[in-house]
Amino acid sequence: MRSLGRALISQWFTVVSGLLLTVTAAALVFALVPPSYTSSGTVVVLAPARPTNRPANPLLAFNSSLDTIASILLQSLSSPVLPFRVGLVAGQDAVTIKNAGVGSSLTTGPFISITAQSPDAVRSPAIVSWVIDLARQDLADRQHALKVANRKAVTLGSVVDPTPAKPVWFVPVSATGGALLLGLMFTTAMAWSINWAETRKRHELAAAEPLEGVGYPPATRKHLPVTPAVRPAVAAVTTGGRHFRQPTTGTASSQPA
Asked: Most CB within 10 Å of its CB: which of 136, 150, 233, 252?
């Protein structure tokens, strides 16, 4: 960690440049990836009103048969052909339909919850409305096929109307975070690589530096002072008008010239 910190400090110009590019790229990703918008609504299967002078409260007329009808509608709406029946755009729009149970039971009950998600803020509530209309039409068609009288037909009542679209920032934030992470990793790797290359180059140059008078090429070699070799000195000795050669080393001898 210390070596990495020293490398980042020594390569501060590369780090700052990489951070600026990373922030720019992250901002561009955040601008190009739009958020999704979600809307939801809930409907309930209602029993037919009783033809009496004093009708019972419809909210108290729930029984297990309504749960069965809600389960049938749920299976029908969850079919693979639902996107084509509602007009969903593949890869953009999504619908989730589930049974909203009462109390501790989350798998049974006469309530059906619809949640739609779309990149268009106006389209997501509209999708919820389309699915609710489709459920009502499906319920009416089933009862008509069974020749159920209108006064005995069950209906689909609205509990929660399609809510206003709410933005979902998960995808843009995830994409931006990924861009930031990749940018930081790339910047760190570049700073480390440049610092390692410079350090290795300095070490190679230091190892190749020669000592005084050793390792230089012949053309640039420094010449050290050379001690002259010991040579015999010629001494002129005048003896009777004759010259004798007398070496400076060794045994002296005199011979006539």
From this structure: 136
